[in-house]
Predict the 3D structure of the following.
Amino acid sequence: MSIQFTILIIYFVFIIFLGILAVRKVKASEDLLVAGRNLGLMYVSVSIAAEYMGGLGTIGTAEVAFSQGMGVIWYHIASSFGLILFGFAFAHYYRKYNVITVPEFLYYLYDIKTWKAASVLNVVGYWFFTIIQMTALGALVTSVTGLDLKLSVLICGIAMTIYLLAAGMWSVAFTSVAFMLTIGTGIPIAFWWVMQKEIPLLAASAGLSGYAGLATALNGIGIDATALFSPFSLGGNAVLGYFLGGILGIPAAQATINYSFGAKNWKIARLAPVLAAILILPLSIWTGSMGLFARVAGLTENPKLALGATLMSIHPIIGGIGIAGVFAALISTVAGILFGCASIMAKDIWQRWLHPDTDDQYVARWTRIWILIIGISSSFGAMTLPKILNQAFFVYSIRGALMICVAFGIWWKRAHPDAAFWALVVALVGGIMYQFNIPINFEAIFKLHISVWCAILSLIIFVFISLRTKWTTQTSSELPPFVKYERESGE
Amino acid sequence: MDNNILEEFSIDDNKRDRMIIFDETDKPFLLFYLIIFILGIILTLIAI
């Protein structure tokens, strides 16, 4: 067993131990996800950052940098921008309405059918997202253990499902600070080591360290370093796509913004995402550089394995700490989105929509069942090995329609429920058709990034229907039974 | 849609004792935050 693998196992055991301690300590609180809406500023900030730094931000950005260069830094610049936008423009509205889910907020802004459409869209998006994150987790484990990638993906997916069922979201959420500490120290330490200690050892680097050494090494093996170091190495369309994905995706990203819903007050809900944005900003500089190192050092042919291969090739203790950091990023995100998907499925769709007369025990039981169903099906789905960052933008794009509905619902008086409903439906159907080339290759014809495509579709539909339809004010008598019940019972 | 949302803040939530942004319970998390933030900056600067 390698030193890196040993460190990973020790870290995982430590996290489970911490989770068990956390559960014992917070027995009185039944609802940790919103924690009695009593979360402080720094806890919310660190938790948002930990949740956001997942497989896409680590394995995915290294994968892109490996093939296309450092233009991938826009991913986290755009994400930070999205978080800041969410903080300043949206967080206080969500917090004010005391919502638990984004679809629930859309109910307050529109009507029941919009809430139902948003619930379905969220579940589809997060189910797909779970598959992508499990792929990233499997890629990391393959790098560490040398197991077949498909087998790793399957094992990791099933292990995550069991972990979540056994530990519960409470402990996972409480360990988010430990996760963030591991991510925020392990990855930059590994990055520093690679740039200063490993690059000078490359034959083609002429003994230089840092980016000078990396550029020399790239040029030395016949790869144009200037092109790969360019901030626009991915092309303008991709950068625009990242920004649209960040701006449109984050303000409606349930698993990420969930912590803001639990903030003590709306001021904290608003400020915390801004502080989280500062933490995630440099991540793709670290992971992207390590992805490029994997290429120049010839560590792997598979871009998905670039980050893991780099961390396995360096000093085992430093590499082990780095792997623990990436592992923490993946676990915190997989757990968050798998639980988020299962809870929307169980609470919004299964109970509120399909079985409204059932109690909380029923929801708890079905949340576990849905964790099992989504977790296992995603494990097998991940065996198709989707391109991590590419497929993630499919989810961001269809989720962008949610954000359009939220934004217009808050700021445009004419925003109409029918417009919101159809914008969501069209974004979901149009996004699926675009991503999977049904029936034609849309990208080849329209030359648009998928997030631009979905944003244009949903925007046109939303504005068109809103302008053509008269708005009737929603009254409290139209509140659905679940809202009435929860308000009256004080839940 | 609801133009009174911000106005409502002053009615419900805008009580001084509930509007504190930073308190004692935040101190350990602030320490974590600063460690991550400062370490990230220093390691990035010396690495490049």
Remarks:
- Chain B touches chain A through 29 residues (CB under 8 Å).
- Residues 23 and 30 of chain B are 10 Å apart (CA to CA).
